[in-house]
Amino acid sequence: MKVLVIGSGGRDHAIAWKFRKSPRVRQVFVAHGNGGISRIATCVNAKTIEEMVDFAEKEKIDLTFVGPEKPLSAGIVDLFESRGLPIIGPNRRASRLESSKCDTKIMLRELGIPIPEFAVFSDPEEARSHVRRLDYPVVVKADGLAAGKGSLVCSTTEDAERAIQEIMVDRVFGDAGSRVDIEKRLFGRELSFFCFTDGYSLVPMVAAQDYKRARDNDEGKNTGGMGAYSPHPWLTKSLVEVIMSRVAEPLIHGVREKYGILYQGILYLGLMLTEEAGELNPQVLEINIRLGDPEAQVILPRLETDLVDICEAILLGNLNDVTPVWDPAYRLCLIAVSGPTKGKKGWYKGYPDRYKIGVPIQGLESIDQDCLLFHSGTELCPDGQFITTGGRVLCIVSRGDTLVEAREIAFREMEKLSFDGLYYRKDIGMA
Ligand code: GLY
């Protein structure tokens, strides 16, 4: 069978790698891919969803899997389905669950799903008055898509007013900031929880710990993710049951029954686990409509079941018959990003702020064969040299029987990579 993966980052490299391992897959195409992906799949220069569907039709693609949220929100699933092409991902209406933080929080409240206290504003002055009245710290979230950077975590009222200014007035995330969701900041442990769903049945995946802040000890700005590991130490069988029964199932059944939305594909719940009376309580911080990046890089290597079989079950609506098998060993992902470096016109602060691109990368060939190396932002030059093209550049994924072993291997291997400005967090897997 021929598979098309949509995407060009580290997650999408991991998805393409997983499909390559399937005995049922003859050829993997990726639109539009990157330097590293071009080593394992055929990269296709299709940038718009119309170009992608034309390619899939012409090439007679049997299965398309969508990595990032943007094409999903733009309606790629509706477009492929209208041409009779099998595709995995939620349709445009279902994608609102990620592309509007405000509408989703309102929907979750109506469905009785646990969420932090929140309020929605489209007027900056009203938002400012609101945070001045509160006696707890908040997170200010841009309503629309902001590449994982649109949630500003605040400690004081001044921080919150600054966040409102940046998002709503300065529009640092563009039109995504025309509305904000201001919610109570919860303290606990974050967990990225994933399910496959055909819209009726749900199958939980293993969970991952993501590290969103740019600097060690969870300091610095929010990023798309600086590293991850799986299994998650807090995710017991009983916690899975709690999350499924209080969040995932009421959500998928609720959106179908109350709003007429059939949600199919991957459901990603960004949860905060808070402890109350000795019990862990999951509360929904955000919903994403896809696999996480870098969570996919640690989850997919643990999946022993053929991803094609799972996709087929989603499309046929018989996911109930599937029980995925997972490798219990740890996977840990460390991301090398474009950090602070000097450019012609002064200093670049580095990801998630401005960073330099086009920087040659060394050491790729010396990474241990037992590790996986997924590329997030690279290009392969005609002379065989890889150069940087993004903020997140490379992901090293190690395997260990313990978290400590996985961490030691990943950090050891990261030492072998170099490029001007290379930066990575030193505390991934520590807590
Ligand atoms: N790692 C966070 C995300 O994929 O949204």
Oligomer: single chain
Helix content: 25-40%
* Major sheet size, sense and barrel closure: 6 strands, antiparallel
How many strand segments?
Answer: 25
Runs with pLDDT <50, length 5+?
A: none
Q: Given the C-alpha coordinates, what overall shape results?
A: globular
* Tally of individual domains: 4
**Highest-level CATH class of the largest domain:** Alpha Beta
Given the structure, what is the number of helices? 12
How far apart are the first and last residues' alpha carbons, in Å?
42 Å
Arithmetic mean of pLDDT = 96
Q: How much strand content do the residues show?
A: 25-35%
Bound molecules: glycine
What structural class is derived from the secondary structure elements?
alpha+beta
User: If you consult CATH, what is the topology of the largest domain?
Assistant: D-amino Acid Aminotransferase, Chain A, domain 1
For the CA atoms, what is the radius of gyration?
A: 21 Å
Name of the CATH superfamily of the largest domain: ATP-grasp fold, B domain
Which architecture of the largest domain does the CATH hierarchy give at level 2?
A: 2-Layer Sandwich
